[in-house]
Amino acid sequence: MDARDDIIVMTEPQWQRLWEKSAIGRRLKEGGLHLLPEEVIFCHHHRHQPLPSDDWIQKNLNLDSSLEARFLILEALRVPGNLIILAEHEHSSKWDTESDSWALRWHKETHPD
Q: Rounded distance, CA 15 to CA 13, Å?
């Protein structure tokens, strides 16, 4: 994973499998995934992906006091196999949602693509 212009981008070969299996992040036109901070931590803990830097989690927890709570909620929703797309990703706008929605959920047997 790489930090680019204040966003995290995963370009490693496994990005496509992460999208196909987990629907995590937002696919980029040039290939790869844009990940929000809570998704970065989830991928690190549950998909064994390396962090952008060794101190990335601590730095981001210091910058964002709600990051830990968002990660724990994401983890609780995803661990049973649900596919969760965070509403902050611009592609979530193609679904009808409430303006204050945080995420969208699909059963593990379906894919939002």
A: 6
